[in-house]
Amino acid sequence: MTHLIVTTREGATRTLSAIPGFSLMEVIRDGGVDELHALCGGCLSCATCHVVVDPAQAALLPPVTDEEDALLDGLDTRTPTSRLSCQIPFDETLANRHVTIAPHYIQ
Known about the structure:
CATH class: Alpha Beta
Order of helices and strands: EEHEHEE
Helix content: 10-25%
CATH topology: Ubiquitin-like (UB roll)
Number of strands: 5
Strand order of the largest sheet: 2-1-5-3-4
Structural class: alpha+beta
């Protein structure tokens, strides 16, 4: 089994077991990180699964789609490596990679 490293909003770092084929959002949610709300369940209709990817690892991810970019544009907390975790499929290339749960956003 592979792992994903997640930093919570409070700064705690957790290593979560991850199964390829799931989205990062599912890995984080199923790993018990409750502060990732993921209200739409991965349907790309909210931005409550917003994470910040480690800048050194951002190039490993698939590109941001126009739909994801539009949702991220509505966030006051967007950074250059912001992503919606529901849009990132977890696979072996992301093993032991690091993401941080983004701060709460204002909409």
